[in-house]
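Margin note from the TA: students keep mixing up input and output lines. Inputs are the sequences; the output is the structure of the whole complex. Example:
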Amino acid sequence: MIPAIFVFLYLAAVLYIGVFAFRKARGKEEAEDYFLASRSLGPFVFLFSLFGTNMTAFAILGSSGHAFTNGIVTFGLMASSSGLVIPLTIFFIGTRVWALGKKHGFMTPVQMFRDRWECTHIGTVIFVVQAVLLVPYIIIGIMGGGTTLNVISGGLVPYWFGGAIVALVVMGYVFFGGMRGTAWVNTFQTILFLLFGAIAIVVIGAGMGGFKTAANSMLQIPALAPLLTRERISPYYFFSYTFIPLSAIAFPHILIFCLTAEKMKHFKKTVIFYPLCILAIWLPCVFLGVMANRVTDVPQIKAKQEARRVLATQGKTMTPEQRDDLREQSSGDDVIMLLLQRYAPLWLAGLLGAGIMAAVMASDSQILALSTMFTEDIFAFYGGKRRFGETVQVNTGRIFIVLITIFAYAIALRAPETIFELAIQYAFSGFAALSPLLVAAIFWKGSTKWGALASTIWTVLTVVAVALFQHFVPAPAPGPSIVVWAIHGTEVLSRTPGGTAVFGFMPVVPMVLVSTLLMWTVSVVTSKPKPSTIAKYF
Amino acid sequence: MKRILLVIAVVALYVLHQDIWFWRTAHPLVFGFVPIGLFYQGCFSIAASLLMWLLVKQAWPAHLESEVEELKSEEDAKP
């Protein structure tokens, strides 16, 4: 129970930060202040909050769990590629969006698209697609909160109650603090993340008696040695993953965060330190996830390894449902918590549990972004602001925050978590496929609303197609893929144990490339916006 | 010329992410316990940070900020 007390103290602290931000903004019932903190964030808060916004529960729990199953490849797949691509997109796109926001007062990506391409309903279509892809994050954040509190308290806090507490706390500080409260909480959370990695590796390393013995003994075991290399992963798959971080800048909550900086020079530290922050958080988590395979005195970890062994040796003779059950049992998302329970003293496990909680509660920015998008792209755009005024607009945003949180909590209680984990996988590819819209809007005079619509429709169709494909063609056992379509011996479409492959690449590669091609070809043959509109941007 | 060199640096780092040369080996274990593939990717992150520093120093789009400042001054000057 002691770790749970630390977590509750942490929850109280973040709630207080939100209320403090509310008191600081008292009297300013302006949309720009509530939703963008008056575009006034300083360099330190901007760096840490932007980074924290992008670090979800996956940064700590998912990364170590993925590494537990797949080995060191996790870092190259998800961390180092993001450490290059995300700062590049912030450098090239984020700074320009910031300047356009300052010049023209945009608060959401759709506002910019509507103005840039002189469109109304196409903007609404983009809003709907962005919102649908964003909702699973909010749901999974509440689910993660319920699960984490349940595990940390040793089962004393039931899942439904843990989820309710997390939902209420997140809703509370977003409701009161708006962007200012969310940014401050994210800064606090990022500091906790950064401390978490360093402390966890020292404590667990000491508990395991050092990593040298563990690493060398893993190399002697044929089933574990490949986890220290990348031999089980195709180079095509590894390359494909470099397309996924393109999604970051297309996520509305990240782009909206880019509008909050007081000065453009605040982006400098953000882009320089972003790869180092990723390194500081992901490297310890990935390494510990791999090393968890050598822990022999934690029964839950042994059970996961046994499930993995059965899946690998007998998976081919099993039904898809049996394989899914074994995958669930072998999932390593809680290995880092199990390592802490085994090796950290209770008070430290509590502190580190608060760090994990910080990661799990990253859904705050998504909730605020959805609220901003709804009030600006729908409420204000369709006349609500003009008719009812700005105070009503802000209060509408607050009501929206309450409603979306209640909705997400209700879904979190009923639906299985795996559904939303899958939805998030699709959402990453979907937002990556929407990134050409941003590039075209900012860098290409010839882009048109029809090109944007074509890219958006393509994104929706491919996300749905991949989801249906993976639903109707169950994942095979570890080993060779199921080839669904081949031309002259060349695999075109395959179902792999981990997803789908198109010519050996992940679906995100053709999704982004075709989206770019559609943006270009359709724009070339359709009429451009007025020269005066284009002149505002170039 | 400076711009071309920077583009080459970005492309080169992107290509270097695909380190097929350490694909099938864990050796050497750096510090006795870090597989070389993981150590390489850690160094890659540091190189990415250095590249960002270089871009900030050599290709910072300062004109964007001055445009915003000019616009703000014009708005402030309005009665």
